[in-house]
Amino acid sequence: MKKLLLGTAFLFAFGAAQAADIVDTAKSAGSFDTLVKAVEAAGLTETLKGPGPFTVFAPSDAAFAKVPKAKLDALLKDKAALAKVLTYHVVPGKVMAADVKPGEVKTVEGGMLKIKTNGGKVMVDGAQVVKTDVAADNGVIHVIDKVMMPK
């Protein structure tokens, strides 16, 4: 019986230590329920589970709560518009906080994000980065306090 318990404990520990993709990392964080729902509604789940790497400037649930309910509901029903907004939050490659520099960076959507630093704060198109370097096996998530809209 001891061998079985030790074997089970080893498998559980090994499985728990494995990194997760961007989507699973967001799900397990517990503060991206709206983002995950939007990714699923836009049909982007498989893409963000793909090999990447991706850098995602991820709006928290609190950031989505700042979007007027009628606007958010309409966006969630418009798959093309939703995909455009979500891919505007994604940059190809894995960019850790230490590597972020002021300037512009091209998004997966095709637009340009303006990145500024001021007094130790990093701003991305007017959204403040509130948490950095949430690692996933296919990229990294940086948490932002606002939903950014493509121009």
Q: What is this structure's SSE topology?
A:
Layout: H1 2-17, H2 22-29, H3 33-41, H4 45-48, E1 54-59, H5 61-65, H6 69-77, H7 79-87, E2 90-92, E3 103-106, E4 112-118, E5 121-124, E6 127-136, E7 139-144
Parallel strand pairs: 1-7
Antiparallel strand pairs: 1-2, 3-4, 4-5, 5-6, 6-7
Core attributes:
disordered N terminus, seven-stranded mixed β-sheet, 151 residues, 7 helices, 40% helix, alpha+beta
In short:
By secondary structure, the protein is of the alpha+beta class. The protein has helices spanning 2-17, 22-29, 33-41, 45-48, 61-65, 69-77, 79-87; strands spanning 54-59, 90-92, 103-106, 112-118, 121-124, 127-136, 139-144.
